[in-house]
Amino acid sequence: MTDFAALPFDADEMLAGLARWVVCESPTHDAVAVNRMMDLAAFDLARLGATVQRVPGQMGLSDSLIATLPHPRPELPGILVLGHMDTVHPVGTLEVLPVRREGDICYGPGINDMKGGNYLALETIGQLQRAGIATPLPVTVMFTGDEEIGSPSTARLIEDVARRHACVLVPEPARPDGSVVLGRHAILRFALQASGRPSHAGNIPEKGASAIALMARKLLEIEALSCDAFTCSVGIIRGGQWSNCVPSACEAEMILQLKDPAARDDALARLQALTVPEGDVSFAITPGVARPAWQPGSGCKALLGRAEGLARDLGCDLQSIVSGGGSDGNFTGALGVPTLDGLGVRGQMHHTLQEHIWVDSLAERGRLFAGLLATIDGPPA
């Protein structure tokens, strides 16, 4: 048994530490709340001896953390551990999704996506330090706070930091069977705007043209475009101000997931065809932030091969998938920096009020993460 496999990870102790993070609610659009979570993480990183740089937030979003762990050769291109501290759950979600354990399952907002993985990464670093196991390469930990909305304020920062590293490890949630992620589909976000004609809904409804009704028709058409090559999904809609007014404006937000990168032009053309004016009402589609497709190269595959070997040493058969749903690994993988994603805890139902992890996966995945940090000795190729 290798040294890292014998590290005394204790899932119960890890869960107690993780719970401190989970009860610090941190929805993306609440910069104050996310920064409270960054305070906690900065404290825990400082306890590990890290030099913590706090990068001020942009666009009204939270700060980011870039923490450098001590290493005798800090000039070497090292390992970047990349995670996000924002969640999709608004402050107050703890009232309906409290942190609670039922057997080997623990529930909580953001516990799976992705505070569990971020916490086990720090626990792993601490375990290696206490065991006197030096990492061959320097380790940097980067936490951002806007991943759940496409990383509009941090994408360029992530890319700039990643370029200085030999590889990137992303502790996003593992699949329930423990599979890691080697490649992700491109994700494009769009704003939808329907413009109607206002009128009094009680006296002269026939004089108006409802922007909400127009949007409803368009949403059905948009979601009907989904096929094997790409999918369209609308997740937010806002419209109207008064129930007795025919609404003149309605907005929505959608995501286009490109399973086949070659289908991009066709998908965009089909969406644009839906914007043909209809008299004096109109429908517009405006591009927003996008995540590039991550198609793994030889470096990513070499990194996976190392993880597979370490998993075998631990008695596991590690599988990999190309995933839907974006992560900040899209940016680093698309740059050509060797990236391995989905290294976090095993769990299910993230982004819902049933979000949970399997507690025993904290130690299980911690040992795999320790093996990677303890054995990667250069750029994977």
Written overview of the protein:
The structure is a single chain. 31% of the residues lie in helices and 25% in strands. The chain is built from 9 helices and 18 strands. Strand 1 (51-55) and strand 2 (64-68) form a beta hairpin.
Task: Jot down its keywords.
25% strand, 18 strands, 381 residues, 4-stranded antiparallel sheet, single chain
Topology:
Elements: H1 11-22, H2 31-47, E1 51-55, E2 64-68, E3 78-84, E4 100-102, E5 105-107, H3 111-131, E6 139-144, H4 155-162, E7 165-169, E8 180-184, E9 186-195, E10 199-200, H5 211-224, E11 230-239, E12 245-246, E13 249-258, H6 264-272, E14 282-291, H7 298-313, E15 320-323, H8 329-335, E16 339-340, E17 347-348, E18 356-358, H9 360-375
Parallel strand pairs: 3-6, 3-7, 7-16, 8-15
Antiparallel strand pairs: 1-2, 2-6, 4-5, 5-18, 9-13, 9-14, 10-12, 11-13, 17-18
Helix pairs in contact: 1-3, 1-9, 3-9
